[in-house]
Specification:
Helix 2 crosses helix 3. It is built from 3 helices and 3 strands, in the order αβαββα. It has 2 domains: about 35 residues, no CATH class; about 70 residues, VC0802-like. Helix content is about 35%, strand content about 15%. The radius of gyration is 16 Å and the shape is elongated. It has a 3-stranded antiparallel beta sheet, covered by helices on one side. The chain has about 100 residues and is an alpha+beta fold.
């Protein structure tokens, strides 16, 4: 048995759950869970290939604000974290500030 997690736009969540429930029933698998109270925050840029520590900086800054990371996904140019949606604004402001993107 394995757990599989992924995100879709909230507007697609109902249709996605229906499709997955049909598949789970057909294949006699486990169950489908959907959490609509999450947000995915991403840091994106080709500079991540040559700059080490971006992930650590992102994770540390969110942790310092008391924001728990529920899931992490990475690629060569992006790091994404899933957090509770109630922390969306704080998370965005925190990442803007720590990466020097905040408006003056």
């Amino acid at each position: 048995m394995a757990d599989i997690s992924f995100t879709v736009p909230k507007s697609d969540s109902g249709a996605t759950v229906k499709i997955l429930q049909d598949l789970v029933k057909e294949q006699k698998m486990g169950e489908v869970e959907c959490d609509n109270k999450i947000t995915k925050l991403s840091v994106v840029g080709v500079g991540m290939k040559s700059h080490s520590g971006v992930a650590a900086k992102m994770f540390d800054s969110l942790a310092n604000e008391g924001i728990n990371i529920l899931m992490i996904s990475t690629s060569e140019i992006a790091i994404s974290c899933v957090i509770e949606s109630k922390y969306t604004e704080l998370g965005v402001r925190t990442l803007h500030e720590v990466f020097g993107l905040a408006q003056s």
